[in-house]
Amino acid sequence: MNTTVLATLAATGFTVAFFHAALPTHWLPFVLVARARGWREGKTMGVALAAGLGHVALTSLLGLGVAWLGFALDEHFGELFKTVAGSLLLAVAAYFVFQELRGSGLRHHHLPGGHHHAGPACGQEQDATHLEHELRESPLGKKDTGDWAAISGLLVMLTLSPCEAFLPVYLSGVQFGWPGFFVLSGILAAGTLAGMTLFTWLTLRGLRGIDLKRLERHEAGLLAAVFGLLGLLMLFLEHGH
Description:
- The protein is mostly helical.
- The chain is built from 10 helices and no strands.
């Protein structure tokens, strides 16, 4: 049973990490900066990979705090931990439902030096237009700025914007102790880097028509469904014993 649950958590974690990384804010800035500066594909992919590793590292560090909290709750509540964790996951799901109904979307990354725009623009400009506008106002796309400054800006942009959506997954894995934490961290890295590098590479190769706007607009709703199912799974495990 534990193996089945861990496999379910791993699959869920990979799904959350991959589709979060598939949002244009995780890969389109690298493509835009690369085109503005005339970077080769290999260099662009390397920068995207490095930024993804920073993104994963900070998320894992925050996940470490969630794991410590979960272990403390597990020790304090004992057999009731799954009920507590399941209830917390359902609360997280309710928050995402609120965000979805509110239509505000989730927080997105912005290019250093650019201006912030409102959340997802339903029926307005494409994501590329927003990011291109920010790029023109940012030193990242200006050739009079050194490449290392642009690379540093991209690294900071993504590293300091962790994948908060993955943190509840760490809470779900507390029952598996530290091995579960490391497995989920590996899943986080695999899903994030796969999503970022895949869509960066496809866009560099000129593949058009990747419409992820709908996914971005309804990311909160998708996360609500995922964490709602995780919460129910935790409650089922508690009452199933």
